[in-house]
Amino acid sequence: MAIAKAINESLRKALEADPKVLVMGEDVGKLGGVFRVTDGLQKDFGEDRVIDTPLAESGIVGTAIGLALRGYRPVVEIQFDGFVFPAYDQIVTQLAKMHARSLGKVKLPVVVRIPYGGGIGAVEHHSESPEALFAHVAGLKVVSPSNASDAYWMMQQAIQSDDPVIFFEPKRRYWDKAEVNPEAIPGPLHKARVVREGTDLTLAAYGPMVKLCQEVADAAAEEGRALEVLDLRSVSPLDFDSIQASVERTRRLIVVHEAPVFFGSGAEIAARITERCFYHLEAPVLRVGGYHAPYPPARLEEEYLPNLDRVLDAVDRSLAF
């Protein structure tokens, strides 16, 4: 099934399993969401479980915090990535800190779903990648699936988590299909996974860039280069052990994400892996991502987003050392 359908099925399963699970957001009910991710849920579970909210992101998250304090498990949708900032105060000053503020007595099991990233030809504030802003905040888990199977299972795990989870959904991949086994036993939520083995260099990515890295590995294979592709799956916490294990095999690392390279998640990975793998690395850790500039108009976004040529150029630079 497609990623969008997998998330829909995962939400459906959670709503069926636990009457305390609620879905909230702008147009999530009658419309089924702008990407139809919540299609049919309000019809089947009613307006008290799948709630159309006002256009007020701070109010949506603030209400979810209150519901969580009363024992509910709200799953809230922020319609587009750039719309999350009115709710940033609630997320950072309340949602992320209540557990520590109460010395562990209060838990806020809230999932904040955010379709993010570019590649869909959208207007301003609809194509941003703000994951590093949330990963920087202690008390939040930040994850992003790259395929339908992960989308299904990671959503289940996020809803079951007693900690707040920021769930970034790669909107340009919503219609990518893969097999989903609803009876499988999922791996840990924050465990990275090798999706392609290689010996010459590691490409580490998450969300929408994993598919690009697989395409890069295919192109590099035609030149006799064996690239390993690591799907990080989680941005906070990061599975540094899996990254380190891969780098110790390949001795080179390139981190790829849509967000700007400047102060992006790739910077933390590069710094930590340089500390951990200094004597294994045969080249500096390189990063490929967006530019340190506002996301451009749709007709220019392909120049802004990482693409096959830009990642292959980084591969050439790494292997040249």
From TrEMBL:
Keywords: Oxidoreductase, Thiamine pyrophosphate. The keyword S-adenosyl-L-methionine does not apply. Residues 1-176 form the Transketolase-like pyrimidine-binding domain. Signal peptide: none annotated. Its cofactor is thiamine diphosphate. Pfam families: Transket_pyr, Transketolase_C. The keyword Oxidoreductase applies. InterPro entries: THDP-binding, Transketo_C/PFOR_II, Transketolase-like_Pyr-bd, Transketolase_C. PANTHER family: PYRUVATE DEHYDROGENASE E1 COMPONENT BETA SUBUNIT (PTHR43257), PYRUVATE DEHYDROGENASE E1 COMPONENT SUBUNIT BETA (PTHR43257:SF2). This is Alpha-ketoacid dehydrogenase subunit beta. It comes from Streptomyces akebiae.
